[in-house]
Design brief:
Helix content: 40-55%
Strand content: 5-15%
Strand order of the largest sheet: 3-10-9-8-7-6-5-4
Largest sheet: 8 strands, parallel
Number of strands: 15
Radius of gyration: 29 Å
Length: about 675
């Protein structure tokens, strides 16, 4: 038999888990495998390897999409029947510019019209404003998604009046025009009126939409307010679920049915950087919402929650902003693999200002490449059956359900927000994130690692002032309020909108005179902000003085001996906008001291190999302090305790190493150089 034939007949033995463990421990040079276990922000231990055993421990898994609790997807055919909606949120400086942008983008691959009233730089106050925005936009051909914030009735009345004037059937509109009062409360700390009255509006809008706009969702449940405050995936799921339960109860109290509420509800989540965690989060979300609807007695078809997903604002950066394209691409991929029904991809410059045509195009095309070139839609639930993803999905759902039950024990989501429980939970995780960013254990490429001091910043035009909002016409408010007495709020509001009443006037007429309780808001922030603040301060100082701040590196020995630590120090200070002036590699203390005398630095760091330090550093430190008594001297790397004392006695001011808090090191340097800092970011 030929060698080739023997090779074809040969079979590779299947190693056991125990054999893998032994080989892995050999690679770790005797260290235990537990060293490879990592802990997530969700307090979930992630193992280095998942096997069939992990799935067996979970019990029976859902085998097919479109059934059960919809973990594997809401539709049996996945994206094969209909792809996810390319739902890019459009922002522009004015209604007319918004109109131009949406028509332009719809012609180039966008499939859903998407806006958030609270994020628009202009107010949508009248039917004329709506007309300016939607002129020439075929609302009967494209899905529409409007995040109306705390209340939606006023805007929906303007939209309905506009559609009637244009002869567009209300029943032809599909998508969502929804409100999320609890999410708005968490974001802003206050509401335009009492929560009870907002629930009244939500119920009235939902009843009206059932008859007039049967294909439009009116209730939004958003996880973004918690995500953007630094929450982990468990918290996003639990708090969104708790808000959904609150809305269901409010609707039931006002005459709606469970099925009537569930079919009008859409959930939305932000997808962050932890790729597999975010996939599992979306899969767990479908399971949890199905579980809740089932508990309330909802029918099987109403347990499928529609998921809108947006790539994270929390992960985006001002500096090295083109890297945001890569972040958004990875996040969008996670959203699609997780089974999102609609996706918004962040324009790479969204942390800087309003997106322009170029950044909108790149964001939109990110989705189109996933769809048209990567063919992601061709496989239904590509993560299904993955040992890791299935295990992570189950753990997330389990932990989110536990936290949801804690919220319920406190009286529900509104009470938990009022008591500060939700805010405290989010803040605890946000603090952990912030600490890890400052110590660079959590890396942000282009910001706290690999910062590029030579980059050309993106310039954005100053945003124009918002359009002037007309004063309330108290007489018209009284007329609308009188018309509302009959109980059909939407019909009365639409009639008022036709007579050119403003959204504020309609909202004022609906007010019940009861103010909302003020709570501590969950402040949105971005991971990169601490270092962006330092770098901006350093740049402003450079503009005032005409030169960039710098530290000086005293390198010992040949390049191979000092380069690693010199690069480490240069990278650390670059994160704060500070340059590094490097010396050649010195063979003697005398050469190093001569170089120090000929430079005008204030902070010097010795960079070399550990073996070179004991003989070099103490002698250098004594000579350094004589040459420059007011300058600071540090060593790169963490010396042993006994050497640290020796170095300190010789005049070394400290050490900078992997365990140092990079943020604090830069703050100390900038403060000593007289740079004005506004204090902590958070």
């Amino acid at each position: 038999m030929s060698d080739v034939a023997k090779m074809k007949e040969a079979a590779f033995p299947a190693p056991t888990v125990e054999e893998w463990e032994r080989e892995a421990e050999k690679s770790l040079k005797g260290k235990p495998l537990e060293r490879l276990v990592s802990m997530t922000y969700e307090n979930i231990a992630v193992k280095p390897l998942y096997t069939r055993r992990d799935l067996e421990a979970l019990g029976p898994l859902e085998q097919y999409p479109g059934f059960g609790q919809y973990v594997r997807g809401a539709r049996p055919e996945g994206y094969r029947g209909e792809p996810w909606k390319v739902s890019q949120e459009i922002l522009a400086a004015s209604p007319s510019e918004w109109n131009e942008a949406v028509k332009h983008d719809l012609q180039r691959g966008q499939t859903e019209i998407h806006l958030a009233l609270g994020r628009l730089p202009f107010a949508v106050e009248s039917v004329d404003d709506v007309a300016a925005m939607f002129d020439g936009v075929p609302l009967d051909r494209y899905s529409l998604r409007v995040d109306a914030g705390a209340r939606s009735l006023s805007f929906l009345a303007l939209l309905a009046a506009y559609l009637e004037e244009r002869g567009v059937p209300l029943s032809s509109v599909r998508g969502a025009v929804g409100m999320d009062p609890l999410g708005a409360w968490a974001e802003h700390g206050t509401l335009p009126c009492s929560l009870s009255r907002l629930y009244d509006e939500m119920s009235e809008v939902t009843k009206w939409a059932k008859e007039q706009m049967p294909n439009v969702c009116t209730i939004l449940v958003r996880g973004e307010p918690y995500h953007d405050g630094g929450a982990n995936a468990v918290q996003e799921l639990a708090f969104a679920l708790a808000a959904a339960v609150e809305y269901i109860r409010a609707g039931l109290d006002r005459g709606l049915t469970v099925d009537g509420i569930a079919t009008r509800m859409q959930a939305s989540f932000a997808v962050g950087a932890d790729f597999f965690m975010e996939i599992a989060k979306l899969r767990a979300a479908r399971r949890l919402f199905a579980q809740v609807i089932e508990a309330f007695g909802g029918g099987e078809s109403t347990r499928r929650i529609e998921l809108h997903v947006r790539t994270s604002h929390f992960t985006k950066t001002v500096y090295d902003p083109y890297v945001n394209m890569l972040r958004a691409a990875a996040e969008a991929f996670a959203a699609v693999v997780g089974g999102a029904d609609g996706v918004h991809v962040s324009p790479f410059d969204e942390a800087i200002g309003l997106a322009d045509e170029f950044s909108r195009r790149i964001a939109r095309n990110t989705q189109l490449i996933l769809l048209e070139e990567a063919h992601v839609a061709n496989v239904i639930d590509p993560a299904g059956g993955s040992y890791y993803v299935e295990t992570l999905t189950a753990r997330l759902a389990e932990e989110a359900w536990k936290l949801f039950q804690r919220v319920e024990e406190k009286g529900g989501m509104a009470k938990a927000l009022e008591d500060g429980f939700v805010q405290a939970e989010v803040e605890a995780v946000a603090k952990r994130r912030l600490d890890r960013v400052k110590t660079r254990k959590e890396k942000i490429v282009g910001t706290n690692v690999y910062a590029n001091l030579e980059e050309t910043p993106i310039e954005k035009p100053k945003q124009a002032a918002a359009n002037e909002v007309p004063p309330l016409d108290e007489k018209r408010v009284a007329e609308i309020r009188s018309a509302l007495v009959g109980g059909k709020w939407m019909e009365a509001a639409i009639r008022a909108a036709r007579r050119r009443a403003t959204a504020r006037e309609i909202a004022a007429a609906l007010a019940d005179g009861n103010a909302s309780v003020r709570i501590a808001p969950i402040r949105a922030w971005r991971l990169a902000e601490p270092f962006e603040t330092l770098r901006k301060a350093a740049e402003e100082h450079a503009e005032r003085t005409g030169s960039r701040l710098s530290v000086h590196l005293i390198n010992i020995g040949p390049l191979v001996r000092h380069q690693a630590r010199a690069d480490f120090i240069a990278g650390l200070f670059a994160a704060g906008g500070v340059a590094a002036e490097r010396s050649d590699g010195f063979a003697s203390v005398a050469e190093a001291v001569e170089w120090v005398r000929n430079t005008n630095g204030t902070h010097y760091i010795v960079c070399g190999a550990d073996d070179d330090y004991p003989a070099f550093v103490p002698v250098l430190a004594k000579a350094f302090k004589q040459a420059k008594p007011n300058a600071k001297l540090y060593v790169a790397g963490k010396p042993p305790e006994e050497l640290e004392r020796t170095y300190a006695d010789a005049g070394v001011d400290g050490s900078i190493h992997l365990g140092s808090n990079a943020y604090d090191v830069i703050v100390a340097f900038l403060t000593e150089r007289g740079v004005a800092l506004d204090g902590e970011v958070r």
